[in-house]
C-alpha cells in the first residue's frame, strides 16, 4: 500500500479496508488511532485536516505501523500507551496492557468505600503485581487522601509505574517497590489489591497471538492451575491488612470458588459472591479481615 499523496481521509479508509481484510477486530478504530498517532493528531485534528495530503515520510511511518498491526501487534503496544479508568498509562515490554475488565476491581473497591463513607479517609493501599501501576493509580485518582505502594517482581515494570505516577500527578502519594509479592513490606494496609498472573501454564499457548506474543509471560503465568499467586497473596493479605481491611483480587474464568476458598483458609471473610465484569464473567473476589 502506498499512501503518499493520499488525503488523511482517503488514507484512513484505505487502512481500515486493509485491516478488515486482515481480520483485525476493530478496523475503523485502529485505523483512526494509528493515523492519529503517526500524525500526532486527535480525533478533532484528524477531522479538521481530513483533506491534507500525506508526505512520503508520513506514509512510510504509517505503512510500518500497519504492517505491525497486521502481524498481530496490539494497537496499545504500537502506541506505547493505553487508557484505563479514563487515565493514560505508558506501557513498556515489562508491563501488561491494562484491560477494561480490571476496571471491575476499581469499581468493587470504590463501591465498598462509598458504602462505608470512607472515600475521604487517609487509607493505605498495597497493589501486588502493579505492572503499569494501573490499579493503584486509578484508585489514588479517586481517593484524594489515600497513599499506596505498588510492588512488582520486574524492576522494569516498577520504573514504568513510577513514570506513570509522575505523569498523572500522583507521585507524591505512590511508592513503587521491586520485590517478590510484598516480601519487602510491613503493614498494616487498609486495602490490598492485586491482579496477579492467573492463566494456567498449559493454556498460555492457546491465548490469542496479541496476548501470548506481546504481554510479558511473567504477567500471565499462574502456574499449573492458575492459582499459584493467590496461594501467596491470600495469607499475605491477612498478615498485612489492618482490622476491617479489604482485599480485592481479579480472577480468571472459573477461579471464583478456588480463590474464595484460599481467602477463607487464610482467615479472611468472603462476604459476597465474586463481582462480575461487563461481560457477566465473575471477575473480582473481595474479602475482609474481621
Ligand atoms: C496480570 S499482570 C497485572 C498488571 C497490572 N496490575 C494490571 O492490572 O494491569 C501481573 C503482574 O504481576 C507481576 N508479578 C508476577 N509475579 C510476581 C511476584 N512473584 N511478585 C510480584 N509481582 C509479580 C508481573 O510482573 C505483572 O506485572
Structure commentary:
- The chain has 290 residues and is an alpha/beta fold.
- Helix 8 links the parallel strand 4 and strand 5.
- Helix 2 runs antiparallel to helix 4 and helix 11 runs parallel beside helix 12.
- The model has no long low-confidence stretch (mean pLDDT 97).
- It contains twelve helices and nine strands.
- Helix content is 41%, strand content 17%.
- The chain is elongated and about 65 Å long.
- Strands 5-4-3-6-7-9-8 form a seven-stranded mixed β-sheet, sandwiched between helices.
- The chain has two domains: 64 residues; 208 residues, Rossmann fold.
- It binds S-adenosylmethionine.
- S-adenosylmethionine (SAM) binds next to helix 7, strand 4 and helix 10.
- InterPro entries: DNA_methylase_N6_adenine_CS, HemK-like, N5-glutamine_MTase, PrmC_N, RF_methyltr_PrmC, SAM-dependent_MTases_sf, Small_mtfrase_dom.
- Its EC number is 2.1.1.297.
Set out the fold topology:
Blueprint (H helix, E strand, L loop, with lengths): L7 H14 L5 H13 L3 H6 L7 H15 L4 H5 L1 E4 L2 E4 L12 H13 L8 E5 L5 H9 L4 E6 L2 H13 L6 E5 L10 E6 L14 H4 L4 H4 L7 H13 E10 L5 H10 L9 E2 L5 E7 L2
Parallel strand pairs: 3-4, 3-6, 4-5, 6-7
Antiparallel strand pairs: 1-2, 7-9, 8-9
The protein binds S-adenosylmethionine (SAM).
GO molecular function, one term: peptide chain release factor N(5)-glutamine methyltransferase activity
Catalytic activity: L-glutaminyl-[peptide chain release factor] + S-adenosyl-L-methionine = N(5)-methyl-L-glutaminyl-[peptide chain release factor] + S-adenosyl-L-homocysteine + H(+)
Function: Methylates the class 1 translation termination release factors RF1/PrfA and RF2/PrfB on the glutamine residue of the universally conserved GGQ motif.
Amino acid at each position: 500500500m502506498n499512501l503518499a499523496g493520499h488525503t488523511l481521509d482517503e488514507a484512513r479508509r484505505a487502512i481500515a479496508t486493509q485491516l478488515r481484510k486482515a481480520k483485525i477486530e476493530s478496523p475503523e478504530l485502529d485505523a483512526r488511532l494509528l493515523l492519529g498517532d503517526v500524525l500526532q493528531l486527535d480525533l478533532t485534528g484528524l477531522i479538521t485536516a481530513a483533506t491534507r495530503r500525506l508526505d512520503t515520510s508520513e506514509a512510510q511511518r504509517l505503512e510500518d505501523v500497519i504492517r505491525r498491526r497486521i502481524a498481530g501487534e496490539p494497537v496499545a503496544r504500537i502506541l506505547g500507551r493505553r487508557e484505563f479508568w479514563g487515565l493514560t498509562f505508558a506501557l513498556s515490554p515489562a508491563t501488561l496492557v491494562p484491560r477494561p475488565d480490571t476496571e471491575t476491581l476499581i469499581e468493587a473497591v470504590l463501591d465498598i468505600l462509598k458504602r462505608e463513607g470512607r472515600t475521604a479517609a487517609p487509607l493505605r493501599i498495597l497493589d501486588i503485581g502493579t505492572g503499569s501501576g494501573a490499579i493503584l493509580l486509578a484508585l489514588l485518582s479517586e481517593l484524594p487522601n489515600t497513599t499506596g505502594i505498588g510492588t512488582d517482581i520486574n524492576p522494569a515494570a516498577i520504573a514504568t509505574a513510577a513514570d506513570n505516577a509522575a505523569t498523572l500527578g500522583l507521585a507524591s502519594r505512590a511508592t513503587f517497590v521491586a520485590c517478590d509479592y510484598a516480601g519487602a513490606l510491613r503493614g498494616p494496609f487498609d486495602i490490598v489489591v492485586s491482579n496477579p498472573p492467573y492463566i494456567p501454564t498449559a493454556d498460555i499457548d492457546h491465548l490469542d497471538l496479541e496476548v501470548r506474543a506481546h504481554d510479558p509471560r511473567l504477567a500471565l503465568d499462574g502456574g499449573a492451575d492458575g492459582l499459584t499467586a493467590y496461594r501467596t497473596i491470600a495469607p499475605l493479605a491477612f498478615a498485612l491488612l489492618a482490622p476491617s481491611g479489604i482485599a480485592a483480587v481479579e480472577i480468571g474464568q472459573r477461579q471464583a470458588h478456588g480463590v474464595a476458598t484460599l481467602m477463607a483458609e487464610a482467615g479472611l471473610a468472603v462476604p459476597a459472591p465474586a463481582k462480575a465484569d461487563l461481560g457477566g464473567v465473575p471477575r473480582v473476589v473481595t474479602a475482609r479481615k474481621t
